[in-house]
Amino acid sequence: MPFSLTALTRLLFNLPSAFILTHPGGTPIRGALQIDQSEETDQGKYECVATNSEGTRYSTPANLYVRELRDVRRIPPRFSVPPMDYEIMPGGSVNITCQAVGVPMPYVKWMLGAEDLTPEDDMPIGRNVLELTNVRQSANYTCVAMSTLGVIETVAQITVKALPNPPGTPIVMERSATSITLMWDSGNPHPVSYYIIQYRPASSTDPFKEIDAIATTRYSVGGLSPYSHYHFRVVAVNSIGGGPPSQTVEARTAEQAPSSPPRRVRGRMLSGSTAMVQWEEPEEANGQVVGYRVYYTSDSLLPVSQWEKEMVRGANFLNIRDLTPNKTYFIRVLAFTAVGDGPLSSDLHIIAKTGVPSQPTELKAEVKSETSILLSWMPPAHSGTDAITGYELIYRLGDQPEQKITFDPSSSYLLKNLKPFSTYVFQLAARSKHGLGAFTSEITIQTPQTQSIPPPQEVTCISPSSTTLLLSWAPPITDEIDVVTGYSIRYLAVEREKDSVQRISDIPSNCFRYRIEGLKKGVLYSVTVAAHTDSGQGPESLPILVRTEEDVPSAPPQGVDVVVLNATSARVSWRSPVAERQHGKIRGYQVTYARRTAGERSASPKMRELLLTDSQPQNDSEHELIVTDLWPNTEYSVAVAAFTSKGDGPRCKPIIIRTKPSLPGLPLLTVMSSDDGGAMLTWQPPPVGLSPVIGYRLSYGLADPASDSFMVQELDSVARSYTVPSLRVGVQYVFRLAARTIWGYGSSAQVTFTTSNTAETTTDAMVTVPVTIADVNMSAQEDVPLLVNVTARNINSSSAILRWSRPKNYNGMTGYRVWFAVSYSNGTDVAMESDVSETTVVLHGLRANSEYVARVCVLSKNGPGPYSLPISIKTQPEEEVFAVNFRVKAAMKSSVLLTWESRTTNSKAQSLVILYGDGERVEVDGRLGQKLVNNLKPQSVYTFQLTSKADPTGGMQHRADAMTAPNLLSKKPQLLEKSSSQSIATLQLPSVQTQANVRGFYIVVVPLKRQRGGNFQNAWSDPDEMNIDELLREINGTGRSVRLRRQVEAKPYISAHFQNLPGEFKLGDGHVYGAFLNRALVNGQEYVCFVLAILELGQNTVYSTSPFSDAVLFSDVEPQPIVDEEEGLLWVVGPVLAVIFIISIVILILLFKSKPDRKRAELEGRKCSFPSSSKAMSSQHPSDPVELRRINFPTAGNKLIKRRLSLTLMKGVLGIRMSSHPPVSVSELPAHIERMKANENLRFSQEYEVRH
């Protein structure tokens, strides 16, 4: 096609500067090529050629492109965003986007079949969005893109998801009295998610009941009524929803025996011996009633099977003939269908007497008020001449005598003036002119309480001992005064099915605490308390579950059995003790075993404990323990005992066992070829044990299984090699070597040896062991490398880990073999082997605190290689239990008192760590057994962990949870007035924010200590910092003797106990408040007090305290001694220092007055001629030979002589004569005097004699 070209196309060619044409005058020649009316054929490469006499030169080529006038490329249309296929719900909406590009840009339109969906005059360019709404059918929509360069189209498929079709009509496959089994066809070509069965009784217009999520086309609908018609239909459900239901099918359930007796059974006498009985059809016949059976008798004690009976078909009455006149007959009726009999009706009483009415029927009692009951009944059948003239009602209250009431004929009667909250029994009979008819059966009804008294409040229960519970409560809240006449307690052991409910009655109305005794130990009880009024017992309180304190088990474990495993171990198995005698939760078991010689114990017993976890069962559970540190061929007695948190129970009868003898292990045997054609055997002895090796036995012969001729050679214990000469070449031999002790031969190391180069080593049990075989030409030891860099490390008390390096440049390896045994044992430890494939192995089942030796070798296709050098491993010692019974004894607002029982037997300090809160910790000496943790938050839950400081992270830990008390008493007691004459202080007690769950309030008095200068000081800034252990013992009754005895030193004490905290309290009035004496206050002693509240928060008992009150001090009549500890020590040390000071002064005076002559001084020193009272000195000098010798023969060092002389002088000054005692230096004198003062100066009287 023609191109639209530019009017002028010009090409200019520039020659290179190195070659420029010039005119003769030197002017360069320039040229140009101009193409007019260029066409497409002009497009190409152009060159300028310059030629002169010197030559020809070509310019650089230039390309000529003939382009379109608009400079735009022409591109046919294509879809850049093709439309997508969609699946929508019926009636849904969707937007379909179609986008096309090209040069020029195409027009885009939508079509449905041959119908244009986009108007021709409104056709968009490049992009068209088709909006579809309320789509009901699936269809294919076509997107068309067109331009001058072409037309393209693509299809978008819109699929409308359809609801499933209705399933086929259900078919009844099976039917029973209460179920119908249906089957149906799916009726849908596409998958169905599930089906829904809809059903209802045929006579009902209620909505259908549905059973959904049915995955199959067969289902049995249960829970239907017998012999009833039902309508059923099925609905299919897919991801869209449920489709239309199927056609409805009607089905009837099968018959069943009647589930109710005949109604309105009544009777009357037709004559003196004939009675007519009538009834109506049962309310729930469950089918077609075929007939009735009537049972009657005059002896109601006979079983119904022995009564007379009559069968009735097609009628609802029966005439019973030949009755004995004037006897009372008991009649019962049942209906039966083709399936079976229904239940019997209640007894109908008829007196065989003409004219006497039968019993009224359908007697009912209805409570009208707390003192009245309305009785209603159906009158008995009667004729006109036997008309009922009245009724007689018999009723009684519980076990009280019966009362009778007669009244005129009626069908109801209102009985008044009854006792509220009481149980009444009623019987009714009709009367005619011929006499009184039969009475109905007894009916029982209870009248309501006149005014429902609430249950007792603030009920709490604790276990002060293993056989008692202490129950306390507050009286019920009621508006009436003295409404409560007493209380009763009901308790039951909830974990014992055989135990019955126990009741305690006749508890006085002013008693609010009761101790239940004679309970079982460690058993969970449910306890309730109820208040009683004149109207009877009120409702019980909510049950409180409390467990009695644990005690040691009173029975040993059952079925104890001991099985000897080998020379050093035995398996002990047993069952838990009898549940009734466990007395708490079994925490573990203790196995005690001791060596015996000649029937007597020859060594101290050893103990092993098996601790149980909380998840392990307690009753009739089986346990076992492996004891591994026994001696071989030794008699042992083994006994097992269970223990709780309170201690160990009795041990079972000792079981006598004897361990197996100790046999030696495997020698490490090596076989090599000898120079003379024989075999050189070398070996290493087995691991050293308790029984030494006393010899070896070597046997060898041909490896042929048919050959039984072996040579046997006995060797001594020192032999380590043996040569077998002149073996046949190329023949396979078997060598066996066994070690011998006094108990016999051990296992044999077996070597299969060929005189060429092959050898295998096996035990008697055909277990391969390492052996090294050398040959003249080839050696296995040279082929298989020796492992190096073998390391070992213990993991815990029963396991260790071995590691080694993989051999380099060796490809024939198939694995590794690990050999390990106890380095030093009692002679019966068996060496163990294990084949592994990795360079790391973990050894399990090791003994604690024992040393093991291990070796590793390489396994190849030719057999095992040489073992590595032995390496020693020592397991960690067993972790000791450092404490038990870790618990929270008391929880206050900001502190918690923790207690435990130390298991440390030595007297050294046991450093324990208590972890709690957000990483807080406190260290404590474990021997103290308790620790008060302070600075906690009120009413917060804390978890305390007790662990040993030696291993605070990975060791054993004990855990206890506690909730701190709420801040119930925020204000302190206020001092209102003081009576100095009576030493009584009146306090205003703080108000309680709430008394819910408060068990009681206690007034605690704290005497303060007098400090230096006569001032008093409180050692605690807050009551929560006090250790209230002794106060708790007083509260629980265990510290009664402490309260009654005279207090030697001032200690905090409880002065009063209140159920409800009064507004004011007189401190020191000498009265008793709740079994606590309010002691008189001492003049000159300063006191503070606070209020202690005990709360029950669930299963936790917490203690909330008020702040300290202001100090109370009365005038001091007599000066009180200072009780400061430092001042008390000064009174002891002061006189001693004064005596020493006086002695020093005397010595200095004597030395100063002595002459300067040294000999005379020494002579006077020997004679002890001090210028003091000669009578005093002469009387003490000869009586002490030790001092006499030291004075006559002084040692070097004048300082020591002076100290000893000062001691002698002090004896003279104090008037004491030494009987037999070495000298004491002055520096040790104070400590020596303190030791002498111990045990009421007993040692002082033994060491010295006082001169009168």
UniProtKB/TrEMBL annotation:
Compositionally biased region (Polar residues): 1170-1182
EC code(s) of this entry: 3.1.3.48
Keywords, in A-Z order: Disulfide bond, Glycoprotein, Hydrolase, Immunoglobulin domain, Membrane, Protein phosphatase, Receptor, Repeat, Signal, Transmembrane, Transmembrane helix
Catalysed reactions, as listed in the record: O-phospho-L-tyrosyl-[protein] + H2O = L-tyrosyl-[protein] + phosphate
Leader peptide range in chain numbering: 1-22
Pfam families the record matches: fn3, Ig_3
Domain Fibronectin type-III: 166-256, 261-357, 359-450, 455-551, 556-662, 663-761, 786-878
Key word Repeat present: yes
Transmembrane segments: 1129-1152
Compartments it resides in: Membrane
Domain Ig-like: 77-159
A GO MF label: protein tyrosine phosphatase activity
Enzyme class: hydrolase
GO CC field: membrane
Homology family: Belongs to the protein-tyrosine phosphatase family. Receptor class 2A subfamily.
Protein's name in the database: protein-tyrosine-phosphatase
Species assigned in the record: Danionella cerebrum
